[in-house]
Design goal:
alpha/beta
Length: 395
Amino acid sequence: MWVLATITALAIFLVVYHHLFYPMMLSYVSRRASNNQSTPVADTTDASTLPKLELLIPAYNEQEFIAAKLMNVATLDYPAELLTVRIACDGCSDNTAELARQTIAQIDFCGFEFIVEEHTENRGKVAILNQYIAACPADVLVLSDVSALISIDALKVAAAHFADPKVGVVCAHYHLLSPGSKGEAVYWDYQRKIKVGEASLGAPLGAHGALYCLRSELFEALPADTINDDFVIPMNIVAKGYRSVYEPAMCALELEHASSELDHRRRQRIGAGNLQQFSRLRSLCMPKFGGVAFAFISGKALRVTMPLWMGVALIGSLLLCPECGYEVFRVLAAGQLLGYSLAMLPRLFPKRRWPGALLSLNYLVEGHMASFLGSLFYIKNKLMSAGRGRRLQIW
């Protein structure tokens, strides 16, 4: 029974560590680092000191947002001769490409070069990234989603960081215009703080596809089945020894409002991606990466396995309840059951007004459930692919 007690205690510690102690440590580190850091300022008086940029905007059926996006891009503060804007329409079945051309014609006051690339077949975002980043002639590639507006000075803020040759990636702050729920709003505020802490340890883990920049020459082609490209691309660059910077003054404002169902599917996809990227980038756990390795293990690695540890903590506590000498697990089991029951109330009674803390707890627990399902789907697909491969090999 002591073996079960040890495993259960370990599971409970890891759950508490990942959700409480690790964020507290990041907060402490980021506060100390902020006292010794200042945001670099680009020299805007001489355009020759600024890097040449290409803004790549992958687009698939984005007619709702494409006009607002291009109007926003036209207002960016950067020398016109140093910025090319490429809209890659990936087999759109709607009017995205035509609306893009119409909008570009309306913003002829803007000196940026706009290029609309229209593909008849939908090949997926990874194929678009592999094609255009590898062929990018600019020093720095800027990636941005159609549905995200960019802060006016974002490119100059990023350029200041790239003055340091050791900087390979600059990540922007992601902000939701209209969160789908109170829990989602709290979650993204929490993620912002995590990014700040991770950056203080060495590098933010991944970026948000809404907006980030990278040195074009450092790009490494992605496998076709890559799920979370905005994590893999930056971390591949970090693995090469370059720095990734989180810049709060460089903002991306998300216009798209995700429904509860869409948000759930998105989190399943992120869960599958987390498992995939942990498998492919596990070398980042090596001690030579220092604080990045610590953050990768404490953040990403534990996030992948967290649903398992939460299940072990609950089941183990329940099994130990009747045993003499293990009374503490009765309290722990009761606490876990109470917490999960409270977390499910907003789902069971969605029309009632619930306090923000309860909505945040619901979003957290359902996020782990979605991540678990995503991981299972990923494992299932890998096994099915391996099975097909074995049959072909035998045949």
